[in-house]
Amino acid sequence: MLEQKLNDLSLLKHAGFINGQWINDKNGKTFEVFNPAVGEVIANVADLGAKETLHAIEAAQAAFEKWKVMPAKQRSSLLRRWFDLVIENQEDLALIMTFEQGKVISESRGEVVYGASYIEWFAEEAKRIYGDVLPNTTADRRSLVIKQPVGVVGAITPWNFPNAMITRKVAPALAAGCTIVLKPASETPLSALALAQLADRAGIPAGVFNVVVGTDAKAIGAELTSNPTVKKITFTGSTVVGKLLMEQSAKTVKKTSMELGGNAPVLIFEDADLDKAIEGALVAKFRNAGQTCICANRILVQDSIYEEFISRFTARVSEFVLGDGVSSESTMGPLITRKAVAGVVSLVNDAMSQGAKICIGGSVADNGDYFFQPTVLRDMNTSMRLAKEEVFGPVAPVFKFSTEKEAVAMANDTEFGLAAYMYTKDHSRIWRVGEALEYGMVGINETAISSEMIPFGGVKESGQGREGSKYGLEDYLEIKYLCLGDI
Ligand code: SIN
After folding, report:
1. Which residues in the chain are classed under CATH 3.40.309.10?
2. Residue 452: phi, psi to the nearest 5?
3. Which atom of ligand 1 is nearest to the CA of 160?
4. Does ligand 1 have an atom closer than 6 angstroms to the CB of 167?
5. Is the CB of 227 under 6 A from ligand 1?
6. C-beta 163 within 6 A of ligand 1
7. Class of domain 264-413+419-451
8. Burial 108-146 (b: 16+ CB within 10 A, else e)
9. Which of 118, 119, 115 is nearest to 97 (CA)?
10. Average pLDDT, rounded, for the chain
11. 293: Cβ below 6 Å to ligand 1?
């Protein structure tokens, strides 16, 4: 039982958080939250909809009037306090996450720290929102640029990182002086509500950070995207949904930031340090049981080292221990839903029907029907669905290439462009390939590329805008030009 494991039971909330109040559906409607490791209900949460979303937007607009003029130093202190509270409650937040999302507890602990790092970073950046004084065309005028918050932000976040995907949107929004209405994934609302509870405890004023929980994503999304009070939509999730949100947001010309699907290649050249490449590919593929947007979706290995890579990589994959994430023995947890498992099965079957061979895994695991075995597939070709579609599961398809040119062409042969990785010791190749890869982020001899200090985001149909780093704040700011005449 989750309740019995928590130090601070008040972090476990079951209602939406709007204008500083915990809000239930007025007819008592709730939805179930499952622990995918055991397939059991762990909570019933208020099922809110469009009406409550409107209420949250109005609260956010009212709060915006005061929040936007609060001195940056004061906003920064409140964010800093929120950061401290998240770190103090790391263990409880990690437990909540593992129970609702399934990832192993060590990864949940890591995500809480990772998520908190965005709050810390943007607490600092809040004090560094500078304007400009520009040169002039005539002597009697002065031209200035100031930066102002865009206004009320609508944020929609996914289940795969129930904490960090929230903080990396909410923290920059609040730092910039915006207020926010968040709709977290209905699979993982508890982490979002715990974060709201801590933000409230930190003293962030009512209405600044609102959370609407519910299963009617269409209705909540429609209110967020059509309401003219909302000035920006930020979304992490699938490309299909991202396009829809952009379309809906266009009617009121909202700013949008989209962090969408990926199809990350890992290019491993014959001159690579193979030990490092194997470990890097392992991390890039199997983090969160393969359920991240920057997970290695395709491992491309030069033909001369293909066999050695396959046998050594497969040996490492055989060491994973599948199980309930709360057990310290488990090194990989379940997938989020049965539907997710069925999607992985279908992609593996498609590859096998076209000649792929299984080196290890390949089926639903006997731990329960939410678990899929860590899998390595060889003899892949580019007509297989796994070459084009994001698998979002623990399946590593290994492709073969002969030349650098072929590797780059294969890597770029996708509508996605989020993250790519390469392993090589050749410095000329690092530049050539680094520049040729059509991706927003490229890891070179490194696959653990994420942090609060880097601009996370993609090109092509992987989205627009950047999260984290100094660039991450710009997406929440408008540039205003002030022209002073008659000097
Ligand atoms: C994602 O899957 O989009 C997030 C991964 C990360 O922040 O490292």
Report:
1. 264-413+419-451
2. -70, -15
3. 2
4. no
5. no
6. no
7. alpha beta
8. bbbbbbbbbbbbbbbbebbeebeeeeeeeeeeeeeeeee
9. 115
10. 98
11. yes
Q: Please list the residue range(s) of the chain that carry CATH number 3.40.605.10.
A: 2-261+462-482
Question: What tokens appear for 149 in the block?
Answer: 């918050």
CATH fold label, 2-261+462-482: Aldehyde Dehydrogenase; Chain A, domain 1 (3.40.605)
Residue from 457, 451, 449, 450 nearest 474 by CA = 457
Q: Which among 165, 168, 188, 236 is the best mutation to test ligand 1's pocket, defined by most ligand atoms within 8 Å of the CB? A: 165
Distance 292 CA to ligand 1 centre (A): 6
Given a cut of 90, is residue 368 above it in pLDDT? no
Protein residue whose Cα sits closest to atom 7 of ligand 1: 450
Whether 264 is in the pocket of ligand 1, judged by its Cβ within 6 Å, is no
* Predicted TM-score (pTM) of this structure: 0.98
pLDDT tens, 403-434? 999 999 999 999 999 999 999 999 999 999 99
The Cα–Cα gap between 399 and 301 comes to 6
Q: Tell whether ligand 1 has an atom less than 6 A from the beta carbon of residue 35.
A: no
443 CA distance to ligand 1 middle (Å): 14
Residues belonging to the active site: 259
**CA–CA dist 214, 50 (Å, integer):** 10
pLDDT tens, 147-157? 999 999 999 99
48 touches 56 (CB < 8 A):
no
